[in-house]
Specification:
Blueprint (H helix, E strand, L loop, with lengths): L1 E4 L1 H9 L3 H13 L2 E5 H15 L1 H14 L1 E3 L3 H14 L3 H13 L2 E3 L3 H4 L5 E3 L2
Parallel strand pairs: 1-2, 1-4, 2-3, 4-5
Helix pairs in contact: 1-2, 3-4, 5-6
């Protein structure tokens, strides 16, 4: 099964103080073979890490994401689909790009974000 990971997944993976959540996110990463992220997730994780832990950790984390996940760039088709999704559901830009990326790869989005879970064009799941 192809899975596209939302930024909220990484927020939980990197910053949750709950050991069970960390176990579940780690297991999810290890057991999933076809792992994708939108390039916008690298932006969001980098920014969040930069604010919380500094530039060096942000750079390292971005490189690890590129290594461990197939990064899907925003091309014309994703931009158009993102705009349609954003218009239809009135959601933030980053969420619409992640939704359009999920639609592109025909996968399931790993998220608990209510903006994404309400989109009928994609399937979502949480850890």
């Amino acid at each position: 099964m192809k899975k596209v990971y939302d930024t909220r997944f990484f927020f939980e993976h990197y910053y949750s103080s709950d050991h069970e959540t960390l176990r579940k996110t780690t297991e999810e990463i290890l057991l999933t073979r076809q792992k994708y992220i939108s390039v916008i997730v690298i932006h969001e994780v980098y920014r969040l890490t930069l604010e919380r832990e500094g530039r060096e950790t942000a750079k390292l984390r971005a490189e690890l994401l590129k290594k461990d996940f197939k990064v899907i760039p925003v091309d014309t088709e994703i931009a158009r689909d993102s705009a349609e999704i954003r218009h239809r559901y009135r959601i933030p830009l980053a969420d619409s790009i992640i939704a359009a990326t999920t639609k592109r790869v025909k996968g399931k989005c790993v998220t608990d974000d209510p903006h994404l879970t309400k989109i009928r064009e994609i399937k979502t799941a949480w850890i």
